[in-house]
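Continuing from the previous page...

OK, I double-checked the sequence for Ig-like domain-containing protein against my notes and this is the correct one:
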Amino acid sequence: MSPVLVSRPSLSLHPSQGVSLGDTVTLRCHLPQMAAWVRLYKEGRWIHSHYKYKEQDTADFSFLSTYREHTGTYWCRYRVPWSAVESEKSDPVELVLTGEGTGDSRWLCLLPTGPCPTS
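Thanks. Re-ran it with the corrected sequence; updated structure tokens here:
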């Protein structure tokens, strides 16, 4: 039996910049094929799963009101419905929040695009 090849997902943030404490932010895992389970990880630890009931090419994980604890590095992976094979993890996305008491710059940065603007 040949191994099952599972394409790598990608992860993006919406909105992609200017997210302040208390704002809503969505981490969207883009799937190259139908998946049964999509998992979101923060700092290397699994934090949430989303089961796909119908064919969609994305899985959304939203924070309705962001807190300082949401700052960090996220990635996603998925498992296809007919196999126990999991995908590779997506490239990481860094969520940086701005606002009172954060001490951060005014931007939300996506890795691996580079450092945050300092202005």
